[in-house]
Each structure stands twice: as structure tokens, then as C-alpha cells.
Request: fold
Amino acid sequence: DADVTQTPRNRITKTGKRIMLECSQTKGHDRMYWYRQDPGLGLQLIYYSFDVKDINKGEISDGYSVSRQAQAKFSLSLESAIPNQTALYFCATSESGTGALNTGELFFGEGSRLTVL
Amino acid sequence: AQRVTQPEKLLSVFKGAPVELKCNYSYSGSPELFWYVQYSRQRLQLLLRHISRESIKGFTADLNKGETSFHLKKPFAQEEDSAMYYCALSNQGGKLIFGQGTELSVKP
Reply:
């Protein structure tokens, strides 16, 4: 089955360390997203990419960077992790298209739980 | 500013009771609204979208532009409906903005 895969699934690190979360997909979708989930805050968009050459900041991009290495791969980096970046991170994909063609359906990975001590 | 608000963090009902999960939004254009659901140990997935006017697993949601609401309703809750529910809005740029989420607990 076509899928969205995130690695690592769990990571514990220390303040100041560089961390990379990776996402790969076999759905053939052009659009990819990174969200973080915090209790009481829901999902907040960090970065999104509508194709390989397109990178856009979301609601909470400070402290994060991304790389779209290929249509199928979208990585999220924390250059110098801090404790308030402890969260559950989700990668998602969707088909391209706007207006009536944009169904709005995102396909999510299983999440990467990051703990920064 | 685009915003989605779900005022209830937790909603607890008994099996067979009606359930309504509230969602309000602010958006200057024509919104496209969705409900996503995350069952225990499963991925977040689309439940329904307003443009389809569909009923999924007995849930319906009506877009009320006057009240800027998109509440999710089900007349008779089942235990398997227990999950985290997120309301989401799609803007003209094609990205989804999510609300804070409501945890629904259906007790036997």
C-alpha cells in the first residue's frame, strides 16, 4: 500500500543538539507538510512544500528548517533543539490542485515523538 | 486572520446519547472545512468534508456561514466513536489550518 513513513518514531535528545526527522512517501503526491502536535494546541503547521522547488513557512517555523530532497522526501531539522520543541511531529502529504480539485485530504504518517531534555 | 476554534477539550457522553462537537472558524474568503479523526493507535485521517455533504459513520456536519460554524453531530454515540477530533479549514493557498482538537469519550 502507498504510505507515508516517518523516521525515527521516537527520539530523546539534549538541548543544543541538531536533530533531523525524515519523511518519505510512496503515494506519488506533490505536496508535503510538517505539523507538530501539542496537547491543547492541536496541530500547528511548521513548513509545507507544494513541489520539489517550493518551500513555505507555516505558523510556527522559527527554530526549524526543512529540505525537500525529492518528490518523495521531506526532512525537518532542528538546528539547536530546545525543550519547548518537545512534541509529536507529523508529516503529511496531499495531491496537488486548487479550488474544486483540492480535496483537502491529507495523508498522515504515524508521527515522530521528540523529547528534548 | 484564519483561525479554527474548538472550544471543548474533552466531551464525555454515554453510549446512545447525541453528540455535538463544536467548531467555529474565522476566514474572509469562502472556506472549505473538514473534520479529521484520530482513533487510539491509528493515524489521523479524514472523516468528512463540508463540500461533499456526506454522512460518515453516522456523523454529519453542516456549514453555517452566518454563525461561522461547522459543528460535527451524531444522533446516537457509540463506544467506537471515542477518539480525538480535529476541525480544519483549507484556505485559498491549499494548506490546512487545524483547531485545537476535542477528545470525545463515549462511556458504556
